[in-house]
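Hi everyone, sorry if this is the wrong subforum. Our group has a chain we'd like a structural model of before ordering constructs, and none of us has done structure prediction before. Sequence below.
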Amino acid sequence: MTPTTLTDADFQVLARVRHFLRSFEAFSEQAARDAGVAPAQYYLLVMIRGWSADGAPSITDLAELLVLRHHSVVELVQRARAAGLVATTTDPADGRRQLVHLTPAGEQKVAVLARLHRDELRRFRGDLATMSEELR
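Answer:
Right subforum, don't worry. Here is the predicted structure as tokens:
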């Protein structure tokens, strides 16, 4: 078998992984809606909360993390700001850049949703480990 040859078992594992990812995405979208936010807003909030660099992320940073175009993130941030979930400030080092921060309401919303997501992922921990091993 060459490295590029996939077996039936490989395809079966890939199909299970794809099913898991889609199921988790559907769970995530419904959990966000149930919490009163659009799924894209939850993704935005978790990326802001999970930002690991110094300071707040910029619109450009968030576009990279969310794999979206800059103008799409501008619109997403505007809607989240209107909902009271985020605030923006001008970057003191570069007046052209907008930095995005969670508001207290955004912090609370992302904390509740992140707990739900973490718990859902924990339910599948064994399955994920098995699928990972089978892909080696």
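For your construct planning: The CA atoms of residues 90 and 98 lie 5 Å apart. The chain has a mean pLDDT of 93.
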